[in-house]
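REQUEST FORM: STRUCTURE PREDICTION
Request ID: SP-0412
Submitted by: Lab K.M.
Chain count: 1
Length (residues): 367
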Amino acid sequence: MFGAEIRAEFGLTDGSFGLLYMGATLVSALVLVFFGKIIDRWNISRSIALVVGLLSATCFLFAFNRSLIGLGIGLFLLRLIGQGMMTHTAQTAVGKWFDRDRGSAISVTSLGHSLGEASFPLLMVACFDASNWRWAWVGSGVLALVLLPVCCLLASRDRRLAGEGVAGKFASVRDWTRPEVVRDVWFWVSGVGLLAPAFIATAIYFHHEHLVAHKGWAKGTFASSFLVLSVTTVVAKLVAGLLIDRFSAARMMWFALIPLGVSCLVFSFGTPEWIIYPAMFLLALAMGFSNSVFGTLWPEVYGTKHLGAIRALAFSGIVFASACGSGVTGWLLDAGVSFEAQLCLMAIWCAVGSAVLVVVVRGFANR
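STATUS: Completed
RESULT:
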């Protein structure tokens, strides 16, 4: 939502801003591999205090920064702490606490993300009308500080709520270490499909102003479509959680790429303004399922003892993919490749990735 204002203030093009964003996110993905292990070593309340406190400080830094170097540092910290450690901390904690109903638990936990997607885009548009983009970040920093003691209090009691057994035939017979996971071929092959949602969603979010301008759509219409995105994501997450608890995350992970690919095609070939809503509906359906699957898959397949370290490795791949989603697509835009053509390529990726994940499911089952 801040892309046009930031590019104008710092003299950046679509491509240069996308590459800066990508570089900051790539570094954050690398740091997350090591930083994410603290969840296995610290209690959850202490981890939350560190992560939310750092996020608040980062918001204030982003609000008052005036240099291009500071912009890069701010983007790095926002990606590491915001997208990275906030989600990682929540899903790792719930993944450790729950076993039999892990899919539903993680789906409920992630509803906060959906609430943010529904409310913040419209709030940001209101901020633009009332003041400027910097004050939106000041408000975000204050909000994080207000919620910090509440979050720490709620997580202060140790929970040992694990049930008996995991749904389906993918129950982990032992707790894998991260070096063992790194040597597991199915972990890497699954990335062909599991990385697609992060790449594609980030590309659409990051370059939506370019798409809106090219199609002749109203910016406010796209902002309002985030309500559709949020409501659909909530329902999709809850339904996905129930299905995961019944059939296992591994068996469900191929499904998310189908509506994601169709969404890319609708955005690419659709011209009427109203197609924003069905396209966002399909995107939300895909993201709801992929978020629930990603949060549940790793403890289901690799156990919970080293879950923080394993999820940090896997989630750094998601952050890496989201970085490429902004940077690669921005570079291609500067090179003259239309966003519509890129969306068609993303749809092909979804089709191939879905087929690959079907093979991965069989690999997990055979093991």
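NOTES: The chain has one domain: 3-366.
Reviewed by: T.R.
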